[in-house]
């Protein structure tokens, strides 16, 4: 708070002006205000450091949880994946300062209110088939362990629940299949084909071509699901 020099007999307007300025300086936080102002890199960096130590250049899981809380979006919400894609984040649960500044500059967000105002835009990206496909593919490299070429099965199931759980009628069956299968990991080709399968194959499997170029994983899923349906009929 700035030091004020003592003056004699201030006018009523001056007193009111000072009161407003003092109140503003006491309550302003970069993550809460400035939503009506032009983008500021300095304010964006200060906002980042609200979720890290002052000298840290990586926002980790604890800071991410607080960021999600402030933004009003659950960490498991697919909108957070879309945001990570816009920031070109390399590792799930972490944003580096460089990623944050590059992505937030593109989004023109330097405070919480501004990023909240972009949530509808991020949701619209997910509703666009081309953007969604890019985000879906990005999710594989984002979520896998960087020392592995494949994604472990538990991570794959969790990520598939985020990206396809609400939009693919066969997701529940596929998730069950993965849980009882021999597969311990999913590679990128399998990952990409799961999306294509979810978009093109009818729930009754009537248009599934057994001689098509689907991965063995999906051939086995179709065979398993047909057996399950036969046993329950």
UniProtKB/TrEMBL annotation:
The keyword Nucleus applies. It comes from Sinanodonta woodiana (Chinese pond mussel). One of its GO terms (cellular component) is nucleus. The keyword Nucleus applies. It is found in: Nucleus. InterPro entries: DCN-prot (IPR014764), DCN1-like_PONY (IPR042460), PONY_dom (IPR005176). PANTHER family: DEFECTIVE IN CULLIN NEDDYLATION PROTEIN, RP42 RELATED. Residues 1-38 are annotated as: Disordered. Keywords: Nucleus. This is Defective in cullin neddylation protein. Residues 39-226 form the DCUN1 domain. Neddylation of cullins play an essential role in the regulation of SCF-type complexes activity. Its main location: nucleus.
């Amino acid at each position: 708070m700035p030091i004020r020099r003592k003056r004699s007999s201030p006018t009523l307007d001056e007193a009111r002006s000072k009161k407003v300025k003092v109140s503003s300086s006491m309550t302003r936080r970069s993550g809460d205000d400035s939503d009506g102002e032009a983008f500021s890199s300095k304010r964006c960096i200060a906002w980042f450091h609200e979720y890290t130590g002052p000298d840290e250049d990586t926002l980790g899981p604890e800071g991410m949880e607080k960021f999600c809380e402030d933004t009003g979006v659950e960490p498991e919400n697919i909108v957070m994946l879309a945001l990570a894609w816009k920031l070109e984040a390399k590792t799930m649960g972490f944003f580096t300062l460089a990623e944050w500044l590059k992505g937030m500059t593109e989004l023109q967000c330097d405070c919480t209110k501004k990023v909240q105002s972009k949530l509808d835009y991020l949701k619209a990206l997910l509703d666009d088939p081309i953007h969604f496909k890019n985000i879906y593919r990005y999710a594989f490299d984002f979520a896998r362990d960087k020392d592995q070429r494949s994604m472990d099965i538990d991570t794959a199931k969790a990520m598939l629940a985020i990206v396809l759980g609400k939009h693919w009628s066969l997701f529940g069956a596929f998730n069950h299949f993965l849980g009882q299968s021999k597969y311990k990991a999913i590679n990128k080709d399998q990952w990409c084909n799961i999306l294509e399968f979810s978009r093109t194959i009818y729930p009754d499997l009537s248009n599934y071509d057994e001689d098509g170029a689907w991965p063995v994983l999906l051939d086995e899923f179709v065979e398993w699901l047909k057996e399950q349906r036969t046993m329950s009929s």
